[in-house]
Structures are given as structure tokens and as C-alpha cells.
Amino acid sequence: NAVVGVVGFSQGGMLAALLCAEEVFPNLRFVVISGARTFEALEFHMEKTGHPIRTPSLHFVGSEDTLVLPADSRALAQRHFLAPHIHEHKGGHVLPTRTEEVDLVRWFVVRCQQPSTEQQPKGKSQEEQQQQQ
Questions:
Q1: Of 10, 34, 73, 125, which residue is the catalytic one?
Q2: Fewest beta carbons within 10 Å, which of 52, 100, 103, 130?
């Protein structure tokens, strides 16, 4: 299988989620999604299969996003993916490119390729921030 992962932003993120849900590329090891919301086809997937998408996922949520509200990005991750990694960044409707986020993507992709004891880089995911509160 030549495709090991999918990255999508905005509508491309919605497509990436659908590709995972429909298992278009069997045995995907990861998906990275930024600035995307849930939509009817994913709701249908949940009704049809009765389970969330199992592809390991990393979701970027822009705290200042006015096109896809942060709550909508989080809903996509939490409702449709099994154990999503959610990272909120301070930007708007963008695919984040700061060193912190690039390092997080690198860590996530490597982690999904093979079992590893590598620690997550600086900067905590939203899940971790909530757990500490």
C-alpha cells in the first residue's frame, strides 16, 4: 500500500475524514486534519457502522477560526474518531506552520509508523491541557 497517511485542510480535511471512514486506502496509519467540520456523510458512516473511525488522528483547531468554529472542529474529532489527538493553536482558519505544530505532526507521524517510546514535543494537546485543569 503506497498511501500510509492523509493530510487535509478545511474541505480537504472533510475529504480526509471521509477517506478514512470509507476505508478507501486500507490500513492507513494516520490522518492529520485542520480546520474541518463534521458533515452528513460522516453521520451516515456512524449510523451504518456503529463505530467511530479507527485511523489514528491528529486534529488542529484554530482558536480564532471564524470559518470553521473551534467547537465544530472539535466535534469532528470527538464524535467521529476513536481517541483523537486534538491540538488547539492560536491562529485562524489555517494549516498551522509554527515549529511547535510541525514538531507535533512529525512526532505523530513517527509514532503512527512504529511502536515508540518517543515523548510528545513541547506544547500540550487540548486533551492534556484539560486533564491538567
A1: 10
A2: 130
